[in-house]
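INFO  loader      accepted 1 record
INFO  loader      residues=578
INFO  predictor   begin
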Amino acid sequence: MIRQLIDVVGPENARALRRMHVALVVGAVLQGVAFALLVPVLEALFGKHPDDVWPWLWALLAVAALYCAAYFWSLLIGFEAGAALARILRHRIGDRVAELPLGWFAPERVGQLGQLATKSVMDVMGVPAHLLRPLVTSFVTPATVVVLMYLFDWRLALAATLTVPLIVLVYRWSTSLTRRADAARTAARTVTGGRVVEFAQLQPVLRVFGRGEARRGARLDDALRTQTEASRRVLVTGVPGLVGFALVIQAAFTAVLVTGVYLALDGSLDAAELLALLVLAVRFTEPISETAVLGSTLNTARAALAQVADLLAQPTLPEPSAPRVPAGNDVAFEGVGFGYDGKQVLRDVSLTLAEGTMTALVGPSGSGKTTVSKLIPRFWDVDTGVVRVGGVDVRDVDPEVLMARVSVVFQDVYLFEGTVLDNIRVGRPAATDAEVREAARLARVDEIVHRLPDGWDARVGEGGALLSGGERQRVSIARAILKDAPIVLLDEATASLDPENERAVQEALSALTAGRTLLVIAHRLQTVAAADQILFLDEGRITERGTHEALLAANGRYASFWAQRSRALGWSLAGKRS
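INFO  predictor   done
INFO  writer      dumping tokens
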């Protein structure tokens, strides 16, 4: 357990854990010595010369005082180590999350990370504060007692020693019974956490499309039932182990008792010594019996440690040993192939986004358009081919340097809890208020602010829930404008805007293209037609490329796409006449 903790916190943070371990071992040994001193004390009290008890009694009191000091020391270190461990783990988890490829963050990670940063960390925090003490005492104190028992009567000590292999065997058997069930319960809790978040976030959709579903949440109910069943299995499978371990502990004490009685009846052991050694035998078995109730807790702690260790072991994108700086802001794909979850998404994609131009990427849903945009800032590494920025392979560019050159406006916008001003400032934290407000003006966020009761200090709510979809999108665009990066990627960035504001934002974005590389994924005709270059992506391949006029003249897939979109502009919903 200590080794597992050190692996998780890292060698540089292991000093407090080692100090705590030493303190616990010293305390457990002193406790075993104190128990052993009961033998001469009781022998003297029940023997022919009770006055001989005083030297042993003073020794017992001295050892007890040392034990109290060691206990207090270990208690203090344990709570300090627990608090430090929680802080270290949260920092390490945060650091690792910040280092992981952005493509790793799929929706199902929400519940996993939430459980990891809260319950799992608290479970691990309880190891030094509450769990290691009884665990160390359960093994070190009995071992000390058995060793010292040899000083008084080797036969009883041997009887106690012979029971140890059986105790260890049954202990491993009892813990193995619940380990798999505990793992299933932990997995069920993770799924339930994700379902709770999903149930809360999707209330508008659930209420619109199914009132009963909104109240009950079938997927959440299923997850809760699975968790309940997993918890029940832990109890059912754990009971035989607990009973078996309790029986073997009683059998160990009985073996020592029978041996002592036999020796006493044989005359080779007097009654006073037998009584004292039986007290010592009780001290041998009692700490071990406490490990029975620790089994499930130990499994939970080990599972939490394993989860944290698994996250910390997640591979990060390799960083270049000799980073290079891009010579410009053009983007090039050369024979790029990429896929995930066993599905090939891009196949032999080659393209060039010239610096200072606007490229529109169009095509049917699922053709890989968003994947193309995410490979530029290196959310993932390509499987084949190469992605270059400024003539340099993105894998040879320092990640911070690369991200500083790219602004991304996602289709799904998430705003942080805070004010409108705070959320725009994320684009460039060092920006002045005047620069933030100018970016907001270009994205027409100032119009939103003027309608809000608290103006620039208005809070947007969790995830931006207090703003409309179009308003959130405009705040996100203002971030990108404020960042002032030379490469701008817009993934359906104007999809949630009304025509008037879309035109205003498009004008602002067009003003930014001078000296910048702009990639737009869009279905709006005005946006597509304004591009310097249009790439048509279909089934992971670029099938057509050129200007709007040239592609229309070619009468290919893009022309068909344009015709369908143009016809759709005239669609309207007609009510049934009565």
